[in-house]
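Good morning C.,

I know you're traveling, so I'll keep this short. The sequence:
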Amino acid sequence: MTTSATGQPLIPQPPATVAALRQAISRIAPAALPVFTRELDQAADQSRQGSDLAPLQGFIAQWSVYVHIQRHPELAADFRRWEDIAASGGAVQARRAASEIGRILDGAHAAVGLPTR
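The tokens, ready to paste straight into the viewer:
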């Protein structure tokens, strides 16, 4: 993953559609495509079984946030670093990491027009 010299996002934020998100992920995080596809299948099955669009809406929201973060390599690196600290650090480090992860997720939710926690 690369970024421009000006620190601009790798790609514009795509519309919140399955096709646009899939295309964005294939460009900026192709290793995530199998997970995207598996989770899409699960959300579609849940939506069909329950005659409810909420699982698909949640899927699109989750992946819109993921794409927003991955579009910004520095932000994505910070997110991964905090995830690593949360997984391997002590209690104090884990709390700090959880706070920082929450801050990044709140910013991503706001950026894509979703409510924060």
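Safe travels,
E.
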